[in-house]
Amino acid sequence: MSLKGKNISKKETSSKKSSAIVTDSVGNYEKHPFFVKKATAAKALLLQVGLPKQFTKKAHA
Amino acid sequence: MFSEDKYLYKTNSSFLDYGFESKGPKGKIKKVARFSEIGVNIYNFGFGDLNEMTGEISDTIVSNNGDGDKVLLTVANIIYDFTDVYIGVAVFIQGTSPSRTRRYQMGINKHWSQIIPIFEVLGLKNDKWEQFRPGENYEAFLGRRKASFLF
After folding, report:
1. Cα–Cα distance, B42 to B20 (Å, whole number)
2. What pTM was computed for the model?
3. Which residue of A has its CA nearest to B11?
4. What pLDDT is recorded for position B16?
5. Is the distance from CB of A16 to CB of B85 less than 8 angstroms?
């Protein structure tokens, strides 16, 4: 299964503001072991079961 | 999206990390969420309780703070907001245990009439993806905004 394709960045696509309060007091958890572990497990599961056909396409145009 | 009772939540400038406080009989519990990119336009939704003293995050603690529905509605709003910013991406959700996954499923079931016009939701069953059907048990979920709801 390939997960390759065109990636979408927030800057390319964002057209609306989140209704959340935006503040630097919310930490960046990108490298937090908890989330890294969860992401790794999710990725492994998707590699095992594959993605549904409609989700292997690029994001909506 | 879900205008019912929910917590005020915060995010940082990346719109990938979110936090809010659960308030109940057990006091204030800091909840944090992170959307981690796991494939092209696919993000894992991670969610747990933050211990501010140690920095540890856990999704196995049963907080019993009497606000499960409010927490779930807040989570739903976070996912909605995230897909407003990261347009066209899919979100993968799986609980840390079958019972936690069922909790997400019950939330989807409960608010299905609000979700179905906006999101395409798939459930993973016996290692196969299928269109989410209320009442069925799934091991994980994938959700994405429907094209007509991309702004």
Report:
1. 24
2. 0.87
3. A22
4. 97
5. yes
